[in-house]
C-alpha cells in the first residue's frame, strides 16, 4: 500500500460529464439506478408531500451524483392508503404529485441530462377506488365485473368464514366480506383488492397501460409484487412461520412464486420488445434464494430482478461471499446481469440495519425497539457496504437519501405513522415509515429545504441538519462525496461490466476481489487488515497507516 491518507475525491469538474448515460445497447446491464420515492424527495407545491415538479427541480443534483437512471415509486391517481401502491387510475397522475404534463416535463428534463426513467407498475392489486372494483362491488356474484378480482364465497354454514386462512402481508386476514356475503382477496391492505390474472381482460388492460407509458417515453418499469400475481389452484390454506419476512417466506407459499406468473412476464417482454431503445422490466420479487429469483430474468421474461437475498444479508463476510458468488453464477447463467441493492422504501435503511441485525423485513423499528445502534457505527458500515456494492459487476440500486448517509428515523411518534402495517397490527409492527422520511436538502431552511413552506408529511429528525445535502456538499469526507467518487470511479473503470475474481489470503472476515483492474478489499471483521501495494482510488472512510480498519472498504489500482 503506498498511500493511505485521504482518498482523492472527484472534483466537480471531473463530474461534469457524468450525466451522460453509457452509450450502447442494454444500458440496464450495468446501470446504477436511483430510487426516487416521490412523496419524500422534493416538494415544489409546499403541501408537505413531494411531487413531480420537485423532482424536475432537483435533476441537476442527481446528474452530479453520477447515476444512470431513476426509478420513481408510484405517482398515479390513488387514495394513498398504501402511499400510492394502491392505484385508482394507472394512466394518470395524482394531483398530489402534479399532472401528466408535469410528468412529461420531468421525463424530458431527465433525458436531456442522460438520465433514464423507470416507473413503478402495480399489477397484483388495484385500489378499491379503481373503477373496476367499484363496478365489481355494484355487480352480482358470478358477474364479469367480479371476475376481474378474486371474489369467492366464504366457508361455514352461511359463508361467514373467509374462503381460506391467508393473512395479509400487512397483518390481519387477507379477505374482506362485502354486503352480499362474498369475500374478496387482498394480500395487502383491505383497500388493495387482488386482480385475477387468469382473466384475459385483466391482461389486456395492463398491456394497454404498458403501452400508454412506453408511448410517453419511459425507459422501463419496476414491477411491484412480481412474485404474487398468480395464486395456487384451489387457494389452499397456508400459515407463514412467526418470524417470516413480510414479503418472503419459505417455499412453497400458495400466493408467491407460482409458475403462472412467468407467462405474464413473457407477454410483457413481447410488448416492450415492440419499442425501440432498450426498455427494461425489473422484478420486485421477494424469493428465498438467488436461484429462484433468477427465474424472473430468463431471456424471454424480465431484464432485471432485485437481489433481495443480497439486500437482506447481514454485515457478515461469509454470507456476503456466498450471496455474491451465487448471484454472479445464477443471473449470468440465464443471460441476465446480477443486481445489487441495500436499501429501499420497504426495508430499514442500511445505515441502521447493518448494525442492528435480526429484524424481519417490513416489521420496522421504532421508539420501543431495543438495541438501537450507535449512528456513527451504523454509518461507517453503510459506507463500507456501499463501497463494496458499487464495485460489483452488474446493475445497482441506490435509494434516495442513502447518498447522504441517512439512518432509519427510529423516533417517529405514533400519531404521525401512515404505513398500513402499523394499523393492521395494532402497533405491534412499526412498519416502514422510518425509511420514508422526507430528504434534507438545506440545513438552514424549514423542513431542511424539502418544501418551501416547511411542511413535511413525516417529521424529519432534528439532527438530520448535519446530513443535509448543502452541508455535505462542503465536506470532502461526506457520504455525498463518497457516493460521487464511487460512482465516478465505477464508471471510469467500467466496473459494471467487469469480471470478478476472488482473492485469497485476506482471512475469513474480509471480502477481497479483483474486479476489472481494481482490487476491492472490504474489512467486515473487527481486526485491521494488511493492504496490497497500489494506489488508493477510494476509501469508504479515512484511515492512517498501511492497515485497513474494521468496517472499511477500499478500491485500489495496481501501480
Ligand atoms: C411495495 C410496497 C407496497 C406493496 C404493496 C411492495 O412490495 O414496494 O411498498 O406496500 O408492494 O403494493
TrEMBL record:
GO terms for biological process: oligosaccharide catabolic process. Residues 35-436 form the Glycosyl hydrolase family 13 catalytic domain. It comes from Microbacterium marinum. It comes from the Bacteria. Transmembrane segments: none annotated. It is an enzyme of class 3 (hydrolase). This is Alpha-glucosidase. Its EC number is 3.2.1.20. Belongs to the glycosyl hydrolase 13 family.
Amino acid at each position: 500500500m503506498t498511500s493511505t491518507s485521504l482518498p482523492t475525491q472527484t472534483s466537480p469538474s471531473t463530474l461534469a460529464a457524468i450525466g451522460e448515460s453509457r452509450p450502447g445497447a442494454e444500458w440496464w446491464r450495468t446501470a446504477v439506478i436511483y430510487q426516487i420515492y416521490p412523496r419524500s424527495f422534493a416538494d415544489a407545491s409546499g403541501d408537505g408531500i413531494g411531487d413531480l415538479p420537485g423532482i424536475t427541480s432537483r435533476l441537476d443534483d442527481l446528474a452530479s451524483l453520477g447515476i444512470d437512471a431513476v426509478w420513481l415509486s408510484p405517482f398515479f391517481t390513488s387514495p394513498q392508503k398504501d402511499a400510492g401502491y394502491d392505484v385508482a387510475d394507472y394512466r394518470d397522475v395524482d394531483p398530489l404529485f402534479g399532472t401528466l404534463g408535469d410528468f412529461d416535463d420531468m421525463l424530458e428534463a431527465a433525458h436531456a441530462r442522460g438520465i433514464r426513467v423507470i416507473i413503478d407498475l402495480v399489477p397484483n392489486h388495484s385500489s378499491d377506488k379503481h373503477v373496476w372494483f367499484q363496478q365489481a362491488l355494484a355487480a352480482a356474484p358470478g358477474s364479469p365485473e367480479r371476475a376481474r378480482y378474486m371474489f369467492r364465497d366464504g366457508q361455514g354454514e352461511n359463508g361467514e368464514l373467509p374462503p381460506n386462512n391467508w393473512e395479509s402481508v400487512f397483518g390481519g386476514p387477507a379477505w374482506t366480506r362485502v354486503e352480499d356475503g362474498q369475500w374478496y382477496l387482498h394480500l395487502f391492505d383491505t383497500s388493495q383488492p387482488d386482480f385475477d390474472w387468469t382473466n384475459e381482460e385483466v391482461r389486456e388492460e395492463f398491456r394497454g397501460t404498458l403501452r400508454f407509458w412506453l408511448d410517453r417515453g419511459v425507459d422501463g418499469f419496476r414491477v411491484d409484487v412480481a412474485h404474487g400475481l398468480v395464486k395456487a389452484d384451489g387457494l389452499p390454506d397456508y400459515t407463514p412461520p412467526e418470524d417470516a419476512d413480510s414479503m418472503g417466506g419459505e417455499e412453497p407459499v400458495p400466493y408467491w412464486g407460482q409458475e403462472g406468473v412467468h407467462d405474464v412476464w413473457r407477454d410483457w417482454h413481447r410488448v416492450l420488445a415492440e419499442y425501440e431503445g432498450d426498455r427494461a422490466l425489473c422484478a420486485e420479487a421477494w424469493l428465498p434464494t438467488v436461484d429462484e429469483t433468477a427465474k424472473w430474468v430468463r431471456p424471454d421474461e424480465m431484464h432485471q430482478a432485485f437481489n433481495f437475498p443480497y439486500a437482506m444479508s447481514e454485515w457478515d463476510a461469509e454470507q456476503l461471499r456466498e450471496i455474491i458468488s451465487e448471484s454472479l453464477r445464477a443471473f449470468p447463467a440465464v443471460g441476465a446481469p446480477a443486481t445489487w441493492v441495500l436499501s429501499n422504501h420497504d426495508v430499514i435503511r442500511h445505515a441502521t440495519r447493518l448494525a442492528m441485525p435480526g429484524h424481519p423485513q417490513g416489521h420496522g423499528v421504532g421508539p420501543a425497539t431495543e438495541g438501537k445502534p450507535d449512528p456513527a457505527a451504523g454509518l461507517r458500515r453503510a459506507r463500507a457496504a456501499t463501497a463494496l456494492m458499487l464495485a460489483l459487476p452488474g446493475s445497482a440500486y441506490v435509494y434516495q437519501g442513502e447518498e447522504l448517509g441517512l439512518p432509519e428515523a427510529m423516533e417517529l411518534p405514533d400519531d404521525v405513522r401512515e404505513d398500513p402495517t402499523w394499523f393492521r397490527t395494532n402497533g405491534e409492527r412499526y412498519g416502514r415509515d422510518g425509511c420514508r422520511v422526507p430528504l434534507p436538502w438545506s440545513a438552514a431552511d424549514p423542513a431542511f429545504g424539502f418544501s418551501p413552506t416547511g411542511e413535511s408529511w413525516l417529521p424529519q429528525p432534528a439532527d438530520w441538519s448535519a446530513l443535509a445535502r448543502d452541508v455535505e456538499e462542503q465536506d470532502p469526507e461526506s457520504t455525498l462525496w463518497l457516493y460521487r467518487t464511487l460512482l465516478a470511479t465505477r464508471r471510469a473503470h467500467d466496473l459494471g461490466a467487469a469480471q470478478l475474481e476472488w482473492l485469497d489470503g485476506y482471512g475469513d472476515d474480509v471480502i477481497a476481489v479483483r474486479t476489472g483492474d481494481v482490487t476491492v478489499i472490504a474489512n467486515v471483521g473487527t481486526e485491521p487488515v494488511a493492504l496490497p501495494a497500489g494506489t488508493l482510488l477510494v476509501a469508504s472512510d479515512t484511515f492512517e497507516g498501511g492497515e485497513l480498519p474494521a468496517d472499511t472498504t477500499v478500491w485500489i489500482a495496481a501501480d
